[in-house]
Amino acid sequence: MLIHQLLSPRTIAVVGASPNPSKIGHIIFRHLLKSRARVYPVHPSATRILDQSVWPSIRSLPEPVELAVLATPAATVPELVEECVACGVGVVIPIAGGFGETGPEGRKLEARMKAAIRGSSTRLLGPNTLGVINPAYALDTFFLPDDRLDRPGPGSIALLSQSGAVGVTLVATAAAMGAGISCFVGLGNRLDIGEAELVRELARPGSGTSVIGLYLESFGNGPAFVEACREVAGETPVVLLKAGRTATGARAASLHTGSMAGPDRVVDGVLRQYGVWRVFDDLELVDTCLALSLVRRSPLSSTRVAVLTCAGGQGVMLTDYIESTTRGVGLSMAQLSEGTRLRLKEIIPTFASSANPVDLTGEASPPMYEAALQAVLEDAGVDAVLASVVLQLPHMDDGVLEAIARQAARYGKPVVAALIGPKDTQAPFRALVGMGVPAYPSLWRAVRALAAVLRYPQLAARARRARDLARIGGTR
Amino acid sequence: MSTMARVSPVPQPRLLMAEHEVKAALRRLGVQVPPSVLLAPADPVPSSFPFPFPVVVKVSSRALLHKTEARAVFVGVKDASELQAVASDLRERFAGELLLVEPVERPGVEAIVGFFRDPVFGPCAMVGVGGVYAELYQDVAFRRLPVDEAEVGAMLDELRARALFEGFRGRKVSREALVRLVVAVSRWVEEMGREFGQMDLNPVFVREHDAVVIDAKLMGQDG
């Protein structure tokens, strides 16, 4: 119900819609006109905006709306929320800042809004939020013009962000990589709707979300959030970027335990315990979500990686990243069988290396790459492949992208691609991602994403186990 | 006149139990602690115990948070006459307090086991490398309560020095005994409810067949 009204409402009111194209109320209304909802602009005096009839108030609308976006200043918001509650609006999204984040005056406004929704059926997202994006429904409440910020296409990644600016980064990164999203939700000040409830709602079967990525600076309700994650993480991975790691909490440090229990170390342990995959920067958040949304995750106990490259240097670096436990992910390099190596010798130039990392050299071409990829995927000692391509080589072309996707789809073994330095910085990634293979513009990002794919099943199994235990023991 | 009078008192962390009381409670949980004899202020100092010399003598008091710093612990007291001297010194400096006499335990791998109240997640557990260097290495793992044996095992797997608890260089260590100890004490922490503040079991000697709590401190909630 909440998710439906928030992300695919049949009717929307834009309060503060403006005829002035530079006003956020105008931009939001213009974006929302493209959605599949019926959209009503609300403005006290304007008569036509973008050729649409304008309504003077929420009360005057011809039908109760499921979603109301408030594009008006903070001071006007409490009264509008009260009006929304009186009119039975489903979800209200006040976009403005200037609330609890600014001080006591802002907190007073929030208290009034909280009192207004208490006991009603009206829910509130934010305030101080960009709102939501649902590409499949063409729903978009961002006030950043769509010619300035690319939006991601439809997909199965749900992105949630406590911060607006970080949210914009996540959306832009996903769009640039061709990572499709089921939704973006800006949490803002979390007066009502919080991350714990959304995690549970988004993980429901049929919601169209296969992985949930969050940026948080604090937990609205820590226990409720981690318990929600434990509930869903067995089936729907939860990836978290938790910032504010060095904030020192006021904590009694009189015993050893108290002095060692730094807030972030506790967070780290608890996230592991509840099946949450923790990441440490915004790129890693999107990269990990992309990989987990695309690649079939099989519960492998061994994680032997074969590396395919067109350059010796890349093979050396990839091996470091894969094997090192201090500056890498600590996976192991596969030992290719004698049979595979003989097969590879038939495929690759005589001076190339048939041992892992397999180096196709600058002679590499799409057919050579495809045959070599097939050979390593068929090796029983290989659990996953890191496929690195130099698209600039003379015999190379975009056909290699289809070749990688074709072979990746055949064997059910995870394949993650690194495309290093192509002239077109978006098209090849979007193409390969569109064919179901996560692709990254950096060796390290590709290795990190592959590690998440290979390690996540263990975390999921622990989350399932913990969930079953909690169910047997009753809710705590 | 006195400037002292105007200074508001800093809330002192408060021990919920003296060491011998914590250890008695641990013993009731099935957690291993050293055998001991408790001497009241007026009790004569015995010349022998149900365990052999050398012994450890310490002041066991709710008023004493940092025993070592206060020179309220003597380790390796080798015979009855040395014990007499140590006891009269302690009784002079800590009048009216109880003395706890224990044998010097066979050493093991030193672990620290702790519990505390996290402001976000509530009661949590900590386990890791213990002893006097615990705070130097900070090699510990954290979880929210409740924890079971598998979860405590996962905590030990996270330690940089996890090999220590798997029998590093042929040293025999009962990882299972440590795991059982953490789970048992965690249940007690949960039962204590709001009274509980923080607990240190440090060191815990993890040996071939058992894990024994050498020192234990239990604090109530601050404020």
Automatic annotation (TrEMBL), chain A:
The keyword Ligase applies. Residues 6-99 form the CoA-binding domain. SMART domains: CoA_binding. This is Acetate--CoA ligase family protein. One of its GO terms (molecular function) is ligase activity. Keywords: Ligase. It comes from the Bacteria. The keyword Nucleus does not apply. InterPro entries: CoA-bd, Ligase_CoA_dom, NAD(P)-bd_dom_sf, Succ_CoA_lig_flav_dom, Succinyl-CoA_synth-like.
TrEMBL record, chain B:
Keywords: Ligase. The keyword GTP-binding does not apply. It comes from Carboxydichorda subterranea. GO terms for molecular function: ligase activity. Pfam families: ATP-grasp_5 (PF13549). InterPro entries: ATP_grasp_subdomain_1. This is Acetate--CoA ligase family protein. It comes from the Bacteria.
